[in-house]
Amino acid sequence: MLINQIEPSHIAEALKPIWLAKAETASRVKQRMHTVMAWAWANGYCQSNPVDVVDKLLPTQSSKKVHTQHQPAMPWKLIPEFICFNILNKTRYDVTRSLLLFVILTACRSGEARGMTWEEIDWENQIWTIPAERMKMKQQHRVPLSEQAMNVLKGLQGLHEKWVFPSPRKQTILSDMVLTSFLRKHNAPSDTPNRVATAHGFRSSFRDWCSEQGYARDLAERALAHTVANQVEAAYHRTDLLEQRRPMMQAWADFVMSETQQPENT
Questions:
Q1: Over the range 28-54, which residues count as b (16 or more CB within 10 Å of their CB) and which as e?
Q2: What is the model's pLDDT at position 91?
Q3: What domain range is 48 assigned to?
Q4: 261, part of any domain
Q5: For 196-225, what is each residue's pLDDT tens digit?
Q6: What is the number of domains present in the chain?
């Protein structure tokens, strides 16, 4: 089939055999399909991304919610030491380490960071604007960037004209397995027995830190780009509280990098 002839029903038919029986695998296949079709749409080969609405044609995966809520997370108090001994090094353009550090600093989803482009960055105001089509809930999300996050980005300038975190070999978006492999290789500690921490779990680490530091629930939830389930409450959410979130994200960055602070002359 020509790529512009592919419709949601075709995607659904391809996924149906494993959608319920192998929910995690099916979700990953769907994610890969979405990436391919997003590229096709961005380059004018089709009018829309048929994967966007395929969930409407498939039954609910009963185990999906449970799975996403229990990603092994690194206890937040362990993060500074882990960063110091496993993530930081003096090699410029180490994309995997830079990506993981940026994910931790911004508490974003790894897929949002992997697909990040240079045009999404407002250097003057230190804001990363993620377009709606790249967000899980299909709503634009703005991220106030800490000084440490800005330094990560500055260290990657010149590596690729479009992608911030490109694959060194293929010069395209990094695979979703690079962070998983890195965390396994370094035996990243987690709050789940016999399992290493996941990249997604750092969002939970950040959320726990926010709670224990006394930050308002609303600020923490907006930083994570979580939607408000209560429709009445959602009606009052007219702003993303960007500037109120900025000091919180800077404090988080200062904490996670606290084991790496050294005098400038060392």
A1: ebbeebbbebbebbeeeebeebbbbeb
A2: 63
A3: 3-67
A4: no
A5: 999 999 999 999 999 999 999 889 999 999
A6: 2
